[in-house]
Amino acid sequence: MKYEAVIGLEIHSELKTNTKIFCGCATTFGAEQNTHVCPVCLGLPGVLPVVNRRVVEFAIKAGLALNCTINKFSKFDRKNYYYPDLPKNFQTSQYDLPIAEHGYVDIETEEGKKRIRITRIHMEEDAGKLVHSGATIKDSAASNVDYNRTGVPLIEIVSEPDMRTPQEARAYMEKIKSILEYIDVSNCRMEEGNLRADLNVSLRPAGTDGLGTKAEMKNINSFKAVEDALTYEIERQEEVLEDGGHVVQETRTWDPARGITLSMRTKETAQDYRYMPEPDLVPIITTDEEIRAYKEGLPELPDARQARLEKDFGLSSYDAGIITSSRDMAEYFDAVVAEGADAKLAANWMMGDLSKNLNQEGKSIGESPVDAKRLGAMIRLIEKGTISSKIGKEVFKAMWESKDDPEKIIKDKGLVQITDTKEIEAIVDSVIAANPKPVADYKSGNKKAIGALVGQIMKQTRGKANPQLVNQLLEKKLAE
Amino acid sequence: MAKVTEKDLDMVALLSRLEIPETDKARSLEQLDAFLQYVDNLSAIPTDDVEPLAHVLPIHNVFREDVVRPSLDRDLALSNAPLQEDGYFKVPKILED
């Protein structure tokens, strides 16, 4: 039988606030264990949590950027569970009145644009970090807990099960990351766990409507792992069903080193979170005026920015899509263009030499040794004809390795394009004289033979001769 | 109308991390059942047009500014922990084999 996968994601994103959601402890990553804790986030008796105003602001912004309706009346609830990563035995979260609901994002798929619906976005506190004594949680006789992360504000973005392939799930998560970066509410550093996803996947016979039994994989924190874990899990469930078995509803862990998912059996036999309204926190009421003000304060978002680059600069949808996928990249592009550089050339250089060098050195665009100002200046020199595109590559490489301006590099290395007709003419004459065979070939009708002559001339001028001029002169001389 | 089964009792006990001795089960069932029947009296009140109560106090939007305040000294934070190790709270085995 042919199966189709049904995939839904719960994305947790840590918000970039200075302090935790309910207390004034710092949220800085990487502090010594249990040094960012206080009676509130340790869940000591008698404490009173108070909501960080910025958490609500960020959550509303995220809701609006993800096309959600903001609930004007929202409240917190307790989600009860026993696990030592939260010292209170419950997580303060939101249940029936989350801050935002009913949104969507559009993603690009091979079949074109696809809309992924967002069920809800709620605010909650992050849990602490467990350090296991054994190799895995299962063979650890004891575990150590660091509560620094407990109470760091999160938003959980829950999608509808609208994705059908691991690639769509990845594209969806990339889109969410991009939007959260644009509105500047999360650092989205996946390696630090700022952004992680729980993946829900089930199979059903292709073309049917029902939902099969799902498995869940928690805390996946890279795009590659999203794709790999889903690919593996879909194959695993296919095999189970093909063998006439049943998929068990369970939580599985993804082991990236072995490339497999593994069943996790917890002591808890039945999950029953017994949600109840949080009596220590009062409801949040947001007015229409406030919502309007947040909406107006949103920056240009990736889709709009992509459309603008396509329309204003004639960039291809592909190029504009990649450039606007990250806010840093889009801003770099705008800065290059602001230097007076041609937009299409700017896009080509960014997608070409710049991306290649960044990838090779594992750098982000923010860490690029060549800033937008120098790349813009270099592109203008190409447009003016001071250097050719080919020499541009050499200049780019030199800029990557030094802090010099392109003008200085060109001058120091003597790379200025030769546009002096007399000078080129002399070289053309000598090359014609020294290469009788291609000359004869060309004259007897093999027009391609001119290539060898052009090559010789470029070699003698170390690529500095203006190619158009070289061609013109050669054709003229050979016709004589 | 409430009729609590022994299965319900076991479930509630598990979720509450209570150990109810076999000898106490009959009595616990009886008490739980009586309690639920008492609460059931509330069903007589029509609540169709009443919004669920989110909070007992008529206040909303109590916020703090996003300003860092000193955390606890770590030794003090760990001072109530039954077990600790290298600045961590130490907890017993979490998952079954």
How would you describe the overall organization of this protein?
The complex is a heterodimer of chains A (480) and B (97). Chain A is an alpha+beta fold and 480 residues long. In chain A, the strands form 4 sheets. A 9-stranded mixed β-sheet of chain A has the order 3-7-8-11-1-12-13-14-15. In chain A, a hairpin with a 2-residue loop joins β7 and β8. In chain A, α7 packs across α9. The radius of gyration of chain A is 30 Å and the shape is elongated. The mean pLDDT of chain A is 90. Chain B has a domain of 39 residues. Chain B contains 3 helices and 3 strands; from the N terminus they run ααβαββ. A two-stranded antiparallel sheet of chain B has the order 2-3. The mean pLDDT of chain B is 89. The interface between A and B is large, with 60 and 42 residues.
Instruction: Report how far apart the termini of chain B are.
Output: 42 Å
Radius of gyration of chain A: 30 Å
Number of domains of chain A: 3
Mean pLDDT of chain B: 89
What structural keywords apply?
heterodimer; A: 480 residues; alpha+beta; Arc Repressor Mutant, subunit A; three-stranded antiparallel β-sheet; 20% strand; B: alpha+beta; two-stranded antiparallel sheet; 3 helices; 9% strand; flat
